[in-house]
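Working notes for the structural subgroup meeting. M.R. asked for a predicted model of this chain before we commit to crystallization trials. I am recording the input and output together here so anyone reviewing the notebook later can reproduce the run.

Input as submitted:
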Amino acid sequence: MAHTEHQIMRRVLRREIAGTIGLLTDEHDFRAMRRYCTFTFDDHPTYLRQVEDLLRTRAAQGSHTTVALFDPQEYAEFCTDAGLDPDIPASRTRFTAELASTGPTIPYDGQSLIDLVPALVDEAVRQATWEYASTLLARLGACASCGEDIGRAAFLRASHLLVRVLETAHPGNHHLVCSVTGTPETVVSVLHADEETDGGTHLDEAEALEFTTVLALGLATHSPGGLVMRTSGSGAPDRIYGWRLRREGLEPLTAGEVFDAYCTDIDSGDIISPESDVDYCEPPDLGDVGQAPGHHH
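Returned structure, recorded in token form:
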């Protein structure tokens, strides 16, 4: 009887333990791990099926699991820095535990890997974009004239502009894209802002932070770039409009410029047929943003 009670208590305790699985999302990363003798999987599809079965089993047992993006190169560097043997499971476990607190992760909620893998990759791209843009902003330092932190001021300015863009938008679900092309690498960020039943707007905090940071980078560096928004509402055509980045603000694009941007093939320059039920239009007036927060030299 006592033995049975101990088994029951251990099962209950297992449900209290949160777990993290490091996932090799593509064939290239999987092949990189095959050089370790203790990594015993032979092919990537079988590996993915086994991971999915494990995730489903843990979910059925009431256990919470987080899925992290496992990068073999980062793993090798981690083992070198920590003095670990990379060819033992315990080292992979330690690296995965590190990913749980520092790397891109998403919770497993019963979705298939077909849906989970793209979401995990998107999360990794979003985190990398935010880190890159944040680093460039931090390197700008203080203004030589007034001593103000240029990156911080640009972030405040970008936050204010994003709020105005959403406040002036027509009702519906919004898909925003911000691109900055003048930095060492082109930076692109996407933000989804969905209308809730009470009329409010739902934003993913991580998406909003990354988007604002990329917009701030464009404003602070006076780099070429733009912000485009597509609004979808029930019973009405989608509306597409946008702005180009101009020094510390946003300059409206004309309806013709928006049409040309969406209906011209980037590579060939040929005209592409416009989408049906879509209005390419000028953006609403953002109001007086001249005295908005920001660096105004």
